[in-house]
Amino acid sequence: MKKNDKKEKDAKIAEVKRRNDKIWADAKAKKEADDKAYRDKIDKENTEAKLKSGNVLINAQPTSTIGKIQSEKPKAVNAVYKKDYFYNVIKTGQSGGYRTLDYLYFTKNNTGFKINGKSILDKNEFASYFAIDSISNGENFPPNIGIVRLHQTRTIPPGDGRKVSIEAPIFDLVDSNGKRLFNDDEITLIMHFVDDYFIIGRGEYFHIWYDVGYGTFSDRVEIYNLTTKKSFVLDKQTYSRSTKIDKRVNMALLDGMWLKGSYKAYIKSEVELKHRRIYYINNVGQIETQDIYFKH
Fold this sequence. Notes:
With 296 residues, this protein is an alpha+beta fold. It has helices at 3-53, 101-106, 253-258; strands at residues 55-58, 61-64, 87-88, 113-115, 118-120, 128-130, 146-156, 166-174, 187-194, 197-202, 205-206, 214-217, 221-225, 231-233, 243-246, 263-272, 275-282, 287-293. The protein has a domain at 9-48 and 78-236. It is built from three helices and 18 strands. The longest helix is centred in the first third of the chain and has 51 residues, at 3-53.
């Protein structure tokens, strides 16, 4: 390899690392901000409940308020962790995992879920577990369900220029008993989108090392609604049989600025080299699309 070529490759690798570090830093900052806002909300509700009960705390000492003092105890406010929702047991310390393709694909987290204060599926039933990892649940991950990566894999035979077989992971959604929802071994990745919507990828998952923002599936990608059981299949690239999408939900702020309507979440795909399509969930929970064309 020529010296200049090596320099250029090293520079690209450094740029990829810088962008990845920024993605994780942004996700961590958002999680911390969401958690703080949620805890502040709970503290406010607790304070209001105590005021309504006729008792306030001043310098950690209870004192009666002016007016009639109620004898009954204040009503309980909402718990920090919502009932019947699956929460991650995280050891890695990383955030935003269930909406980031690479995190889902490469992370091994076999510590189970927490639901209603109890640990479930924590006996190594699955290789990885992904659900809510922020108490605020800002993306409204649905209750009584979690994403898992199975221990077993699926063999994908040679094809599309690849001369050897590969072992692809198998993902599914499960209930509190570990029962698989899809029971479809061709699902390579599942990523939560927003509300009851999930992004499901099939076939080999790969990415080009210098194209840090995109992940590619050799088969199709669909947006699936858990409530309606309906799928919306994303368009493949016109110059290949693959589907290329952002690795992360709401990947770039600029993409959101392109959208004409209001939205809850969006993800972008590449249709052609100068043609991108944004799929987004509008504020009434419907899927809409918008195309972006580049001149250069």
